[in-house]
Design brief:
With 132 residues, the chain is an all-beta fold. Helices cover 0% and strands 44% of the residues.
């Protein structure tokens, strides 16, 4: 059974950093790409990152590139989203997601981010609020 569990959200001030975790069960990280999404109030769920299973290389949304970094710990089967220089517009619920096994080889295989419809497995989300 596939399960993704996010944690690490909270209330921070602009310019602060935060590290989110996504603990994965049901498959290993070298089998599937993992994405981070976020959803701000009244907005759609947007892709923020997409990390390839083979080498952990990551695509980033333009809005977070150079501020956010994804890394993973294969031994813990956990993916991390390190968020630096946070801005009020980063306020959202953050989700990690994984595609179904049939499309693992396709999702994140190129240099773009994939929309939420490509992903079947989702965590419950963790709230990040950036406010002074």
């Amino acid at each position: 059974q596939v399960q993704l569990v996010e944690s690490g959200g909270g209330l921070v001030q602009p310019g602060d950093s935060l590290r989110l975790s996504c603990i994965v069960s049901g498959f290993s990280l070298d089998e599937s790409p993992i994405a981070w999404f976020r959803q701000a109030p009244g907005q759609g769920r947007e892709a923020v990152t997409c990390t390839r299973s083979a080498d952990s290389s990551t695509n980033y949304a333009a809005s977070v590139k150079s501020r956010f970094v994804v890394d993973r710990d294969n031994a813990k089967n956990t993916v991390y989203l390190q968020m630096n220089s946070l801005k009020p517009e980063d306020t959202a619920v953050y989700y990690c997601a994984a595609p179904p096994s049939e499309t693992r080889d396709l999702v994140c295989s190129d240099d773009r981010l994939y929309a939420r419809s490509w992903y079947d497995y989702w965590g419950q989300g963790t709230q990040v609020t950036v406010s002074s």
